[in-house]
Amino acid sequence: MALLKLEEVTKRFGGLVAVNAVSLEIDAGEFVGIVGPNGSGKTTLFNVISGVFFPEEGRVFFEDKDVTRLPPFKRAPLGIGRTFQIPRPFASASVRENVAVGAMFGVLGPEVNVNESLKIADQIIERVGLQEHRDKQAGTLTPVEKKLMEIARALAMKPKLLLMDEAMAGMHPSDIDGMVAFIKNLARDEGIAVVAMVEHIMRAVVGMAEKVIVLDQGSKIVDAPTKQALEDPKVIEVYLGHPPEE
Ligand SMILES: Nc1ncnc2c1ncn2[C@@H]1O[C@H](COP(=O)(O)OP(=O)(O)O)[C@@H](O)[C@H]1O
Ligand SMILES: [Mg+2]
Description:
Elements: E1 4-13, E2 16-26, E3 31-35, H1 42-50, E4 57-62, E5 65-66, H2 72-75, E6 80-82, H3 95-105, H4 114-128, H5 143-155, E7 161-165, H6 173-190, E8 193-198, H7 203-208, E9 211-216, E10 219-225, H8 226-230, H9 233-240
Parallel strand pairs: 3-8, 3-9, 6-7, 7-8
Antiparallel strand pairs: 1-2, 1-4, 4-5, 9-10
Helix pairs in contact: 3-4, 3-5, 4-5
Bound molecules: adenosine-5'-diphosphate and magnesium ion.
Adenosine-5'-diphosphate (ADP) binds at residues 13, 16, 18, 36, 38-44.
């Protein structure tokens, strides 16, 4: 049984087909990179998986349960966690409180009280290396620290599937390497599947992903083990605008 399964999912905005009949499967604990040029439908696909948008066609299954029409607040407790491309912290709340919110809306949701959610937040803040900033207002963090907080907030949901939308964009390469290693370890320890989306073929995806899915104008054009995907002429064409020389 796949952890996540999409069957022929289509999402339109008026006449624009943002996601076009996309089918895919993600297994438990798997690392998958979703790659595609700007506007290729990556964020929209995320939104369909997390429940921000409902598709016009197709179905979304999580652990064999049809979640196509469930709103995000009902998917998060099932184990679908995400970061946002544009971090949206509660600026005047502390880092600790922001991360604790993740715990309260996630898998543990109804079981955790405020103190317990703060305790979970503290553990995760330490794991992402933000402990020095724990009591600062989130609004005072640097962009990279905000990204880390956003990842911490998603991890506090204790997801089975972690969707990372450009979570590492703009980070320094050495920070990315640290983050990739951290997420890999954590995901392995906790059995979390990670789907990371990036605008460009980045070292982060190459370093992390077992499988790469490539979108182009809303359609899935490649779904293959990382090495094979990156050598695929269709991928090279999408990025360079022409097929590789023979
Ligand atoms: N809320 C929206 N309303 C209308 N069009 C949208 C909306 N979100 C995305 N789009 C359009 O859908 C297409 C895919 O966008 P998006 O999913 O953001 O791509 P990516 O994340 O790969 O850059 C783009 O043409 C974009 O302009
Ligand atoms: Mg995007």
